[in-house]
Write a structure and sequence with these properties.
FAD/NAD(P)-binding domain, 24 strands, 5-stranded parallel sheet, 7-stranded mixed sheet, about 450 residues, 2 domains, alpha/beta
Length: about 450
């Protein structure tokens, strides 16, 4: 009888674990099932490119069925689990609820945006964690330009053309840079907005941007943003968000109609419903083998698992793609050894960060690789080369090269596609036709 290996999550960790098991498990020895709420993996480091219009949105995702040959893909939502019975409760996209049994379970559910109880934040801010949020942010930038072009009130127009990003981590820095590039590239097509000018503001609660990189590289990144006219406010928090302004901890009121929230992530909420031990940050407690203590056959990786960081004793590994890729391979190998009755062959997670890349657009970036610091164009080239090499599938990599080359030659598209995926319906078409006929 074949064993059941269940993988929760289809991001970097889940997809990597499934591909590893496909390559190493003997055919028909185990049934591997991957549960994910979409049929694609989002390549999150390229999300700013989709928001800025340098990449086609479909080209920053990897269809799971293209990459998986012997893994069953279950598109649905994880509802909870019963580790004692070794089952996971799921709901399919069609609404059917059922239980999936497992002999080995790999949890790679990822994370969601971490919000704070700031008045007006949930109602008025835009997130930057999913593909739909990235496209919504791009559409919003373009829509604000369109609205400002027909607005006569100067104060209202100034609020429309001001964009505030909260959080100076990877997502905030790269997302801000790409959106500012987008506005700079298309503003020549908006005469009134061009005269008024756009304003981009980056708000960070800590003393500097990008605590993940060396201070001198962070200083270079800050200087580059300010050279472009972006206002960088450090040691500053937001106190309140409204439809047309944001209040800062300094007391300043910034008139704006767009607030992008990129201030951190937290484990997926369903992680707390799996019946597994959690650490203080809400991640699943894991040892250096990616195993969950007290739960044989259960492994946790990435944002969902608090796997010890070999480079920082006593702390969990940072939630980066390069860490979860290695953790997923370790978890898959150890699960395979457990199925084969060889638990003594399990190996620990030993990876240490080899480098970091922060792409700021306009052929500018900062990077650190194997202790060597890069900045400017060389760092930008390294960042794109790294992401190109990491993207699964030759066809996906070809699409990235095509998009980047097209952008260099022809610039960005300025079409605002806010209605994409939300058709008005046939009845609305009929009513519109009747109104035109009556007129």
């Amino acid at each position: 009888m074949a064993w059941n290996v269940l993988i929760l999550g289809g991001g970097f960790g889940g997809l990597t674990a499934a591909r590893r098991l496909e390559r190493k498990l003997p055919p028909h020895s185990a049934q591997v099932t991957l549960v994910n709420d979409t049929n694609f993996m989002l390549y999150t480091p390229l999300l700013p490119g989709a928001a800025g219009g340098t990449l086609e949105p479909r080209h920053v995702v990897v269809p799971l069925r293209e990459q998986l040959r012997r893994t069953d893909l279950y598109v649905g939502h994880v509802l909870g689990a019963d580790p004692d019975r070794r089952v996971v409760q799921v709901r399919s996209v069609g609404g059917r609820e059922e239980e999936l049994p497992y002999d080995q379970l790999i949890v790679a559910l990822g994370s969601t945006s971490r919000t704070l109880p700031i008045p007006g934040l949930a109602e008025h801010a835009v997130g930057f964690k999913t593909l739909s949020e990235a496209i919504a942010l791009r559409n919003r930038v373009l829509f604000m330009l369109e609205q400002a072009e027909s607005e006569d009130d100067e104060a209202t127009r100034r609020a429309l053309l001001t964009f505030v990003f909260v959080g100076a981590g990877y997502a905030g820095l790269e997302g801000l840079a790409e959106c500012q590039d987008l506005a700079a590239d298309v503003i020549e097509r908006y005469p009134r907005a061009r005269l008024e000018g756009v304003r981009f503001v980056l708000v960070e609660a800590r003393e500097r941007v990008m605590l993940e990189i060396q201070p001198d590289l962070a200083a270079f990144a800050t200087a580059e943003l300010r050279r472009r006219g972006i206002e960088v406010m450090l040691d500053t928090q937001i106190r309140r968000v409204s439809a047309d302004a944001v209040e800062l901890s300094t007391g300043e009121i910034v008139p704006t109609c767009t607030v992008a929230w990129t201030a951190g992530v937290k484990p997926h909420p369903v992680v707390a419903k799996l019946g597994l031990p959690l650490d203080g940050g809400g991640r699943i407690s894991s040892d250096r083998y990616c195993a969950v203590p007290g739960r044989p056959g259960v492994w946790a990786v990435g944002d969902a698992g608090a796997v010890p960081d070999p480079a920082n004793k006593g702390n969990p590994s940072p939630p980066t793609a390069q860490h979860v890729l290695r953790q997923a391979k370790v978890a898959a190998d150890n699960a395979m050894h457990a199925l084969g009755g060889e638990p003594d062959r399990k190996r620990p997670f030993r990876y240490r960060t080899l480098g970091v890349f922060v792409d700021m657009g306009r052929h500018q970036a900062v990077a650190s690789t194997l202790g060597i610091k890069w900045r400017g164009f060389p760092a930008w080239f390294l960042a794109r080369t790294y992401h190109l090499a990491l993207m699964p599938g030759a066809s996906r990599r070809a699409r990235l090269v095509t998009d980047w080359t097209t952008g260099l030659l022809f610039g960005r598209d300025s079409a605002e596609l806010g209605q994409l995926g939300h058709p008005v319906g046939l009845q609305s078409h009929q009513e519109e036709a009747e109104e035109k006929t009556a007129a």
